Amino acid sequence: xxxxxxxxxxxxxxxxxxxxxxxxxxxxxxxxxxxxxxxxxxxxxxxxxxxxxxxxxxxxxxxxxxxxxxxxxxxxxxxxxxxxxxxxxxxxxxxxxxxxxxxxxxxxxxxxxxxxxxxxxxxxxxxxxxxxxxxxxxxxxxxxxxxxxxxxxxxxxxxxxxxxxxxxxxxxxxxxxxxxxxxxxxxxxxxxxxxxxxxxxxxxxxxxxxxxxxxxxxxxxxxxxxxxxxxxxxxxxxxxxxxxxxxxxxxxxxxxxxxxxxxxxxxxxxxxxxxxxxxxxxxxxxxxxxxxxxxxxxxxxxxxxxxxxxxxxxxxxxxxxxxxxxxxxxxxxxxxxxxxxxxxxxxxxxxxxxxxxxxxxxxxxxxxxxxxxxxxxxxxxxxxxxxxxxxxxxxxxxxxxxxxxxxxxxxxxxxxxxxxxxxxxxxxxxxxxxxxxxxxxxxxxxxxxxxxxxxxxxxxxxxxxxxxxxxxxxxxxxxxxxxxxxxxxxxxx
Length: 493
Known about the structure:
The protein is of the alpha/beta class. The chain is 36% helix and 19% strand.
C-alpha cells in the first residue's frame, strides 16, 4: 500500500485561522488546527494586522499536523481560502504598511457612493465588474485610504487581498484567482481580467496587483525554504492560487462546472450569504456577481449581521442562543454593524412591535427572524441571476444547503426552514471553506479539477435532509413591511 498523502486547506477568516489536514485520496478530515485573530476598531472601523494572519496560519498548521500524528513528509500541497475584500497594502519589501481594512469596515460608504456615481450608476458597474460597489468592496477601501491616510497610500508598492498576502508568503509569488479578484471592483467578470479604466480611476496600476491564475486550484509555485521552515513542512510542495472563502465553500460543497450548478446555498456565519455556482454570468445590481474558483460564476448576496448579531441580542437579554421562540408581533432588525444587503452602511438595529406580553424569548426569536429574513429575501434574485424562474415548481423545490456555524444551531435551522418553506440539506462535511481549500491544494498537486475532487470526497458525507415546512408568510410579510417602511428614516439609509 502506498504511503498516505495529505493536503492542507487553510481557512483564514475574520476571527480565526483553521488548517484542515485532509487525506488526498478520500477527503477524510484527519485534523483541524486553529489559531485566533485580533480584530480592532470602533464605530465603522474593522482592522487586523496582516502579520497576525501569517502567525495564526503557522500556528494552525503546526497544531493540525501535530493532532494528525502524521509526518510533515506526507504533505503534498497547501492552499489558502481567505475572507474576501480586505485591503492589504505592502511596501517595496513586501511588509504591511498598516493594518488591513476588513470586509466589514464600513468607513468607505461615502467613497462607494461616489464611485457608483462616477461610472454612471449601478448598471454600469454591473456590466463591467458584475458588482456594484458598497462599503465592503476593496476598491472603496483603497479610495478611502487615499483620502484619509494619503501617506501610507503613497508609500504602497503592492495591494493584496488577505488570501493573496498569505499565498505570497507561502510561494514567494504574487498571485490571486478570478474568484477573490472579482470581489475587488477593479476586476472585470466580463473580460476575465483587471479593468484598466477602473484602475486608472482608482490610481492603481497592474504592476501593483497580483497576477490572476486561471483557477483557484492552479499551481502558482512551490513552498519556499523560509515558509517551509516557519510552517514545519517540506519545501517544494505545491501551492495553489487559493481563493475567497465563499468560493472555497462552493468548491467544498462540490458546486461548480464539474459538480452541481444552480443549487442555492445559505451560509450562516459572521456574515450571512446566499449563493450558487452557475454558468450564467450574473447581471443584477442587487447581487454581487462574483466569479467562481473553477471558471464558473458565483452570484452572491451578503449581509453583515448574522450569527454574531443574534448572539449579541441573546447576551443583552441574558439568554442562551437557543432560548428563543417565534417573535410574535415583534420585529427586530439586528443591523448592529450597518448593513450591506440592503445597502444601509450607517444603519443600526431596529426593534418595533413590542407589547406588554412580549417575552425575552420572543425578542431573541425576532432577532433570528430579522437576520434570516434579510439574507433569504435575496434568494429569488439569486435564482433569477442564474437564469431560473423562482416560481417554477422544480426550482422552488430545490433544497437549500445550509452551512456555516449557524447551520449547527437548532434555532437557526428551524427559523430558516420556517421562513423559506424549502427543504433543507445540512451537509455532513464540516469546515467547508477549509475543505474547499484542501481540494484546491489537491488540484495543484496534480489531482485534477478541484470541484470534481471535492464531489468525490463528498460521496461518503452523511448529510442531514429536512423536508419543507409550511412557510410562515405572516412573519415574512410583517418583517418585509417594517424593513421597507423604515429603511430611510429609521435605519440611516
